[in-house]
Amino acid sequence: MASNENRPGGLPAGTGSADDIIRAVRDDLAAMDERVFGNHGAPSFDQHLAELRRAVNGLLGPSRG
Amino acid sequence: MADPAPRTDGLFGRLAGLAEQVEFEVHYDAVATSLADRFTLQTHYNIAEMQDAYAVWIAKCASAGGERDYRHFIRVIGLLIESLARHRIVTYTPMIRPAGPMDPYVEVLLKFPDEATALVAGAALYVVAVERLTARDPSVALSPLILENAAGILRRRPDAAIRFRELLQLATPWS
């Protein structure tokens, strides 16, 4: 990972190319996938979008329509 | 809007996928479309603003750092909401004339389209991730008043997004 020893994870602003910064953020997020969520799920594209839509509807409560 | 086919299918559905601009846009579109479908609205996007929001979010995540733990996850979601709320990405228009008084959710979406969509997008990602971990939905149904209050706070202070769990009354599995 392109990183800086001054901070855990990712790149400090102003260091490296845009691709390096994106890669570092992706690595941080991937580490969270592993450490925080233990890679639970990782569903298919369609399953994930369905979960997202269900979460949106859950946040808004039962539809009155 | 972004091509709906993600480039990194192996990452889609994981947090890491959000770092890809295409998937970032697909996620946002999924949320905005869900809101629009639910309330019979039409979405209108400013793609340049969405791209700017993505770039700002990546830069904020990179400079914020973190221990790659749950606190980092919460910060990443807060920064996502803030970055989206700072940009004029989406507007909604009703597709039908309401027969009676306008649905209060619709009023919020018309008044605070970017802030409300940002809040719901971040909260939905939080809910999906936490639910996969705990098998419990951490959300309670938001009243229009709570959503409007949170959106109004974000319009004045986008950096208040870091308090999204309190603003939206989301439970946390971490002590």
Model description:
The complex is a heterodimer of chains A (65) and B (175). Mean pLDDT of chain A is 75; it is low at 1-13. Chain A is built from 2 helices and no strands. Chain A has helices spanning 18-35, 45-60. In chain A, 52% of the residues lie in helices and 0% in strands. With 65 residues, chain A is mainly alpha-helical. Helix content of chain B is 57%, strand content 6%. Chain B is mainly alpha-helical. Chain B has one domain (15-168). The radius of gyration of chain B is 16 Å and the shape is globular. Chain B has 7 helices and 2 strands, in the order αβααβαααα. In chain B, helix 1 crosses helix 5 (113-134), helix 3 (70-85) runs antiparallel to helix 5 and helix 4 packs across helix 5 (113-134). Chain B has helices at residues 21-38, 47-64, 70-85, 104-111, 113-134, 144-156, 164-168, and strands at residues 41-45, 90-94. At the A-B interface, helix 1 and helix 2 of A face helix 1, helix 2, helix 3 and helix 5 of B.
Strand count of chain A: 0
The largest pleated sheet of chain B is described as: 2 strands, antiparallel
Share of residues in helices of chain B:
55-70%
Strands of the widest sheet of chain B, in order across it, are 1-2
> Looking at the structure, what is the overall shape of chain A?
elongated
Structural class of chain A: mainly alpha
Average pLDDT number of chain B = 91
Shape descriptor of chain B reads globular
CA-based gyration radius of chain B: 16 Å
- Outline the biggest β-sheet of chain A: none
* Amino- and carboxy-terminal Cα gap of chain A: 49 Å
Beta-strand residue percentage of chain A: under 5%
Low-confidence stretches of chain B: none
